[in-house]
Amino acid sequence: MARQRVEQTSRSDRRHRAGLGVLAALALAVALAATPPATRAADPTPEPTPSPASTAAPGATPAAPTAAPRTSTIYRSDTVVLQYAKTWCVPASAQTMANLVLGRSDRTYATQKSLGARVRSYNAYTYTSAGNDVRGWAGALNWVLPDSLPVVYRDRSYGSRSAAITAIVGALDRTGYPVGIVVRRGTHAWTVLGYRASEVPGDPASRAILGLYVVGPLGSPSDPWPYRYMTLATFASYFTAYNEVERRVIWQGRYVIVRPEPATAGFGWTGP
Question: What residues does 209 pair with on adjacent strands?
Fold first, then answer.
């Protein structure tokens, strides 16, 4: 009788374990069905493709823009004039400058002689020699140029060569007209036609002047002719401080130029 109960109990246990197995299988199936697709090994989520910015080296900075040479010149071969007389360097330079401003090619003796008389009449001082000064140079230019021109010429002087060069380049940039300069301690006249600079494109504040384009009315080989580029070092050997031998003048010991300036306040010139 006891054996029979044991066998019945054993059969009951087997049926119970079998029932548990079925329940376990059902529970596993339900669990798999409820699992989100993103966590299944058979359905992985792809990795995002890195953007170009994310692949750059940490701390990298863009390359700084570099300076490039730039040339600005108003030279025209049919405008420069030689002086007809030994003492006519100022009238000849005024004639060259007027040609450039007016777009003409007047190289005649008659015009140069007439300009010479005008320079003498406008000089700031009276000279026993046949010399002239920059006040007369500016006056003669304003006499020959039309009143409708938006600029007038004035003589200016500076305590340093670098300040004078800055003023020369500024006048060329703002007006597109030539600038007169006094060289060789005030004994001769040249005309500045342009300059060469090193500059970062689009950044005028980065500009560094390298040299100037000049012409002298004595011609070659005594003067730069028909024009010549000079580095700042070479230019400095000619563009020296003014020294009047007859008397002490307002330009004494200074660097003197004759430059175009605005005829009216509305021209927009705010520089030196």
Answer: 197
